[in-house]
Amino acid sequence: MDYDSIIQEQMNKLELDELEQIMEDAAEQSRGIFSSLSTDEIVQSMIDGKPLFDSEVMIQNLLDVFLYEVKVGLVLGVEIISICIVMGLLKNFSNSFGDKPVSTLGTVVCSCLVITLCLKNFMITYHACLDTLNVMTGTMQVLLPILIPLLVSMGGFSSGGVLNPVILGAITAFNTALQKFILPILFISSIFVLINALTEKDYVSRLAAFLRKAAVFFTGFAVTVFTGLTAIQGLVTKTADGLLVNTARYSVDNFVPIVGGFAADSIDMVLSCAGVIKNGIGVLGIIIILCLLVIPVVKILAIAVIYKLTAILTAPIATKQIAGSLDEMGSAVITMAVILGLCALMFLIFLTIIISIGGGTLWK
């Protein structure tokens, strides 16, 4: 029996329909940046040494999506600039006719309109970030029950027994921390930024900047702690599992008469095939996470560009507070993209740790 038939037989025993459906949905959400792949295609590409994607096509599609999102976001920029032009006209009329109260009232009304537009847009971006986080977390919860048993079947008893609760606990804790603590801090900081548009004091903006930096710090700290602990556990259990597998292979080879060497070679082949399948599913998980990440991050960065450009364009015609608040909103949106990226990075590190354990070297 060759390794192709062993791999196919082992894959037929796995229930991958839900995972591959997630892959199809994620590839569709990526708008052509990533194409849908099955586990069979990934495993075969790994065996043949062929690339999974055309990098030039991916980069071009990514650029096209970014430019499209910028065009969509221009509507928000045009609306804000139009309101700021009205605000500038009111200020000029006030200076010409000396009607200060009317100008002040008009400025406040225009500022409230700008705040309303920014808050509405930020709410949409905020909920899109939450939805992406939930989908990525759900994907990891689907992947682990498939990857961990494969890891155990390769002799990774210690790794499977330790990493499964560690990674599941880290994913649950991190998701809870983001939804209940970190992202709400970022949302509150954005509210403070918008409030700052109505006052000439900059105390509120300083507090908003502090909260934004705190959100990034706590996210980075959580990613470092969770991935660090998981990596250490993986290294320790990988050594123990490697010793166990080598001992079993040596025992079969030396203490089973006549057929011991053939049995040891068969064990090597079965373990290698299981490793290839595990790595293929892990790579599929990585691709899914990237598919789920790319469009939300592109949208968020496009919105950030709109905020930054609008802040520059409105600086000569609007109040200093409005221009500064738009610039700070751009920074807040970028911070949201950073937090989402760090979340995806942690999940990718978890998958990489699982892929690295147990090998998967295949020879003919």
What are its keywords?
0% strand, 364 residues, mainly alpha
Could you explain how this protein is built, in words?
α1 packs across α8 and α3 (39-48) crosses α8 (260-314). It contains 9 helices and no strands. With 364 residues, the chain is an all-alpha fold. It starts with a helix and ends in an 8-residue tail after the last helix. It has one domain. It has helices spanning 3-12, 17-29, 39-48, 55-97, 100-153, 157-195, 203-255, 260-314, 320-356.
Please outline the helices and strands.
Layout: H1 3-12, H2 17-29, H3 39-48, H4 55-97, H5 100-153, H6 157-195, H7 203-255, H8 260-314, H9 320-356
Protein structure class: mainly alpha
Number of domains: 1
Strand/helix succession: HHHHHHHHH
Catalogue the unreliable spans. Answer: 258-264, 359-364
| Helicity, as a percent range | over 70%
Strand content: under 5%
- Count of helical segments? 9
N/C terminus separation: 12 Å
Q: What does the overall shape look like?
A: elongated
| Main sheet record | none
* Chain-averaged pLDDT: 78
The radius of gyration is 27 Å
- Count of beta strands: 0
What's this model, at a glance?
Helices cover 86% and strands 0% of the residues. It has nine helices and no strands.
